[in-house]
Design brief:
With about 110 residues, this protein is of the alpha+beta class. The chain is built from 4 helices and 3 strands. It has a single domain, classed as Winged helix-like DNA-binding domain superfamily/Winged helix DNA-binding domain (Arc Repressor Mutant, subunit A, Orthogonal Bundle). β2 and β3 form a beta hairpin. The protein is elongated, with a radius of gyration of 17 Å.
Length: about 110
């Protein structure tokens, strides 16, 4: 299971990346995170919805209420142009961090020690 710190650090880029595939609603986002991480990241409503509201205030995502066939309403979230830009920036940053860890853990890092 991933630490709370890792979950917190990865939550914004994870949501941006999921929404880059198309609009989604909260429960579906939670299930997608669970699926793509093999259950390593477990998100709750209490963690996700404040994040979504914060990201909406930052202009990274937008939301719309959709009335379903059964008459129920569901709130869908989608990326804004600013959200697409930030997602690309986050992707580059995480790729660099991943590359560094890959080098360190594989023993291929060229380090100066001592």
């Amino acid at each position: 299971m991933a630490s709370k710190t890792l979950v917190a650090a990865s939550s914004k880029p994870m949501v941006l990346s999921i929404l880059s595939h198309g609009k989604s609603y909260g429960y579906q986002i939670i299930k997608n995170v669970e699926s793509i991480t093999g259950g390593e990241l477990e998100w709750t409503d209490a963690m996700l919805y404040p994040l979504l509201h914060r990201m909406e205030k930052e202009g990274l995502i937008s939301s719309e209420w959709v009335v379903l066939e059964n008459g129920r309403k569901r709130k869908y979230y989608s990326l804004t142009p600013e959200g697409k830009k930030v997602r690309a920036e986050e992707q580059q940053q995480w790729a660099r961090v991943n590359q560094a860890f890959t080098q360190l853990w594989s023993g291929n890092a060229k380090l100066e020690i001592g």
